[in-house]
Amino acid sequence: MNHTAAAFEDAYGRSPEGVWHAPGRVNLIGEHTDYNDGLVLPFALPRGVSVAAARRDDGVLELRSLQAAASGCRVRIDDLAPGAVDGWAVYPAGVAWALREHGVGGASLLVDSDLPQGAGLSSSAALECATALALCDLYGVEPDRAELARLAQRAENEFAGVPCGIMDQSASLLCTAGHALLLDCRSGLSAQVPLPLGEDLSLLVVDTRAAHALTGGEYAARRAECEQAARLLGVDSLRDVTDLPSALESLRAARRPRSFLRRSGGPDAAVLQRRVQHVVTENHRVEAVVGLLRAGALAEVGAILTACHLSLRDQFEVSWPEADTAVDAALRAGARGGRMVGGGFGGSIIVLTAADRLDAVRDSITAAYAERGWAAPAFLDAVPSAGARRLS
Ligand code: GAF
């Protein structure tokens, strides 16, 4: 029997009706573009969250986790409201709350995860998506997957209070094995782009062991800066900036509003210029990477990953010392490129390297960490894997 199903039986004394799985993700490129209506290119990891579940007819949602045995949650579906649940349970409870209007009722859930938490690999989105699939199947609800991604995002935004974009939930639900997902976050249209890792090239995920959380104020501050820049430029979102030099010039000319921005507690024009520079060039980098992948030139993608890292470090200012050190060490050891992934301020980096440099890259990063007296990083093979699915 499936391990998660067996754990459900131990916890609840009956069999689950099924087990559902949703993967974590790594974003190949397209960072901080999703909430600017831009382009992203994530792929699913071979690790994720499994949920064993069964309906119950008393209108109660009961949540337990193998990774947090001490902190379960029991709440009436009718009592679900933002603020009613906290801790890890806020994510599955938020999904049940968002699905309530679709007729979803009580259920018992047992959660099991092999994703490192705080590693910036989307463990919260994986938990939301596995829960969403489970509850939909249990209650015969059949939304399409893009709609389900929006529902899970709404749960995270409105129920958990985390102002994330749509990338992570879309990646978990829409990715397919061997591919990255090109998602246009404005139109919602997506395409599968082959990401063939053969014997020659490897993608390595390095958990920098600096914990990442989106709940800190910096992520929300970046979103607010992007929205403010869009307002000053008179566009709906930074996706609409087609002429970067003119946009930067307009923001420079907006130096008079600078005193206004200061009075209103906002950032000055130079900060907004840097944010715009990152977002606009990042959309171009996504398009360039997609072009290279479609041309079968994965090795050439490395330089663009590194350019993305520098932009996130210097223009968007969301990198952190462990990420910068790990990227530098990987490049010194001959990697083709590397960059921080996700929201920033902690989490993981991704490195593209010739397979025969893999050991040298790992050793170089480990040595750089040891020199600084930091706890050793963790390495994960980044194999583009299948999206969320029912396991049994
Ligand atoms: C986090 C968010 F959840 C995503 O929506 C995205 O904005 C990402 O940071 C940055 O690209 O993972």
Structural account:
This protein has helices at 3-12, 90-99, 123-138, 145-159, 167-174, 217-233, 244-253, 255-263, 269-294, 301-314, 321-332, 358-372, and strands at 18-27, 39-40, 42-55, 60-65, 73-76, 107-113, 179-184, 190-194, 201-210, 337-340, 347-354, 378-381, 389-390. With 392 residues, it is of the alpha+beta class. It folds into 2 domains: 3-195 and 385-390, Ribosomal Protein S5, domain 2 (2-Layer Sandwich), CATH 3.30.230.10; 201-381, GHMP kinase, C-terminal domain (Alpha-Beta Plaits). The strands form 3 sheets. A 6-stranded mixed sheet has the order 5-4-6-3-1-13, with helices on both faces. Strand 4 and strand 5 (73-76) form a beta hairpin. Helix 6 (217-233) packs across helix 9 (269-294). 2-deoxy-2-fluoro-alpha-D-galactopyranose is lined by residues 31-32, 34-35, 164-165, 167-168, 214, 342-343.
